[in-house]
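Fold this sequence, please.
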Amino acid sequence: MKELIACLIAAAASTPFILGAAQNVAGLQRIKGAAQSPILSGVVVPANTTLFYLSGQVPKALDASKPADSIEAYGDTKTQAVSVFNKIKDLLAEQGLGLSDVIKLTVYLVGDPQKGNKLDFKGFSEAYAQFFGTAQQPNLVARTTVQVAALANPGFLVEIEATAAKAK
């Protein structure tokens, strides 16, 4: 038992050092991963924080003259991701939140037929970089990106879930 207590005390004592590299914004501790990484290793959310879970969002149609179930109606991965991030930005604003409050994204990408049915990670990353880690919005997020076989509409290449957090 004494060994367990000693381990817990040692872990607690080292926590400020481990989190020292974190970006503290409104009580949140954003833990940066590798120096050049555009995403976080993780986020510590204190108890007195409001969490907002945004359901998966898909792009808006850009070309109504194209069939609603076609990729041509929504654009390539980068175009669809920009559309989804703008949609997320608007939905967050309705809740008094912004992209700077986003702490976690789960990204679902369908393989692009124009890219041999492989996910367009580069295109998605270029879209992400327009919204996170910028001069206007410097916060990064924890993120998971996976390729899926399909989304609800055959024209969708992108769906993104977001979690935002704000200290009360």
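Confidence is low (pLDDT under 50) at residues 1-23. Helices lie at 2-19, 71-74, 77-94, 121-128.
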